[in-house]
Amino acid sequence: MTKKKEIDDEVLEKLQVIDEDIDSCMAQLKLFSANFNLDHLETLGPLDQAKIHLTSCYSLISLFWIYLKLNGRNPSNHPIKKEKERLRKYMDRVEEIETGKTKPPLKVDQTAVKRYLSEQKKLQMVYKDRC
Hints:
By secondary structure, the chain is mainly alpha-helical. It has helices at residues 2-35, 38-43, 46-70, 80-99, 110-130. Helix 3 packs antiparallel against helix 4.
């Protein structure tokens, strides 16, 4: 019976921590919504605006993910997973732009282009001769 009481105490402690975290999260959300001002957002540059929008969306999706987990549902099988992955790609792209680590531009194979153009010229000449 003591083992059951220990397990119950552990579960109760974990639930209390979760409850405190939820209360803290709710306080932060209230603070965010109270201080969120669209007029201020318009004064920021496009990169900062994108970061704010992406962070807000990702935070809400993460909260919904937690909600699903707490209700015993598997978020991996929910459409929210695709949305979270999509936002993560956008966040990575913003980070690439911000740090200047954009992907190198595609390189054109010069010899292939020359071969293609010479073939096209030959085909045009053959076509003109037939017409």
